[in-house]
Design goal:
Distance between the termini: 47 Å
Keywords: Nucleotidyltransferase, Transferase
Strand content: 15-25%
Helix content: 25-40%
Protein name: Glycerol-3-phosphate cytidylyltransferase
Number of strands: 5
Bound molecules: [cytidine-5'-phosphate] glycerylphosphoric acid ester
Organism: Halopseudomonas pertucinogena
GO molecular function, one term: nucleotidyltransferase activity
Radius of gyration: 14 Å
Strand order of the largest sheet: 3-2-1-4-5
Largest sheet: 5 strands, parallel
């Protein structure tokens, strides 16, 4: 069984997130998603609207997602890849190059982002109402 893992905040879940997760399910037969906790998002300097437990529940409800785990640190990727016997680490190409150090543990894939949608833009469009 080929295991794929990705990491992210997945705030205000949108089509860009869904397309990414669907791409992962095409690459392997087990998809693990590490959802950033509220505390880790503070570390990332990222403000979220939706709390962790709801973001994790939504991601976990996606058909092609087999397991959701909390993302609590930058360092955990190395241990996660070993713990879950991961074959592929994949993430959007806004992170291109950032995780090449994982190549000694598994395949590293950067996927094109979906155009014209982001949580930041969604938040901005909400302020217009
Ligand atoms: N994404 C995408 N297209 C978009 C928006 C997001 O493909 N229009 C992808 C991102 O590239 C990422 C995933 O969806 O792979 C989740 O996006 P974010 O929640 O913004 O993830 P981020 O905060 O960048 O967290 O350790 C890694 C970090 O936790 C990644």
């Amino acid at each position: 069984a080929k295991t794929v893992i990705t990491y992210g905040t997945f705030d205000m879940f949108h089509i860009g997130h869904l397309k990414l997760l669907r791409r992962l399910s095409e690459m392997g037969d087990r998809v693990i998603v590490a959802v950033s906790t509220d505390e880790f998002n503070e570390l990332k300097g990222k403000k979220t609207l939706i709390p962790y437990d709801q973001r994790a529940a939504i991601v976990g409800a996606i058909d092609c997602v087999d397991l959701v785990i909390p993302e609590e640190s930058w360092e955990q990727k190395v241990t996660d890849i070993q713990k879950y016997d991961v074959d592929i680490f994949a993430i959007g190409n806004d992170w291109k190059g950032e995780f090449d150090f994982l190549e000694k543990l598994c395949e590293v894939v950067y996927l094109p982002r979906t155009k014209n949608i982001s949580t930041t833009d969604l938040k901005k469009s909400l302020t217009r109402f």
